[in-house]
Amino acid sequence: MILIYILSFTISLAGCIFYFNTGSRLANNLVTQGEQELNKQNYNQAVLDFEKDIKTDRKTTKAYVGLSNAYIFLGDMQKAEQVLDSGLKSVDNQGLIYITLSNLYENDGNYEKEIQILKDGILLLKLDSLQKQLDKVYLKINICGNTPENLANLGLLVGQGEWIYYIDIDVSQINYSKADDNSALFKIKTDGTGKKILKKSFNATSLNVVGNWIYYLKYAISQNYYLYKIQTDGSLDTKLLDDYVSNIVVVGDFIYYTADNGNIYKMYTDGTRITKLNNVVSSYINIFGDWIYYFSSEMDSNYKWHNTYNRMRTDGTDNQEIISTKTIGKEIQMCGQLSCITVIGEWIYYI
Questions:
Q1: How confident is the model at residue 309 (pLDDT cuts 50, 70, 90)?
Q2: Mean pLDDT throughout 126-134?
Q3: Domain range holding 307?
């Protein structure tokens, strides 16, 4: 009787071990099947295979990653994100899920979410791979919203990371006798894929992109513009100021702009803490380090306009004249014009 009991127990235990091993093998087989369906571009079937795998073994990291990829190919970013969020609560290899979520957000141009998910992962797991991923993200985010050269030419295009944001508009009609309902804001990847329309009837100029926000000037009336911002996914289009604005440059957390007959102002990118920096007609703003370089015009006692190129600190102090039409040559004095000025390194280039 004792021998029979021991034999029966051994068979039962072996059966138990066999059951779990079979489940693990079944999960791995389904992952393989799901990956094969992904390669064949049979995304709906891949979804079914990966979902079966997760039901069989909820700790299979590859299944969550594969399922999220299938949803991405099907164009359902929300479900892809939900799958990965669920994976964070279930799998042992959370580092791979954090990296996949990071790539998901970056692929959509959502750097704020990407940075936050990586910070959460670093705090929880203390992984060097997550820190390296975060360091790479910071290198891809714009510090300056656009180049002076682009902004001097209406700023209809700007890049950040692997995305290009642009306004599709007939440049010959840029003087706008009326609002242009045919214009639109698009984004497209630098390899020409992933083109998306973010907003229709987008009658605007001076695109600046920093992080998750596009800052721009929206046409109002009579060549006047309002300052707006919109997220890089086309949501949360927000008016920042009720005053007419021109010559915007976004650097880090600050927006520099001209208003009130051309005076330079700065404010935070959330529209708060507005500060007036000078009291002269200014344009062609260029931020370089701690300096604001700008073009200004003043009328003398003989009612003649004189143009100068100046710089001042970003807090409005230490204003210095660099170039003046009164001093740089006869031809310049005759035409009285300076324009299209940019600063590169230690040199100032102008026309």
A1: confident
A2: 93
A3: 148-349
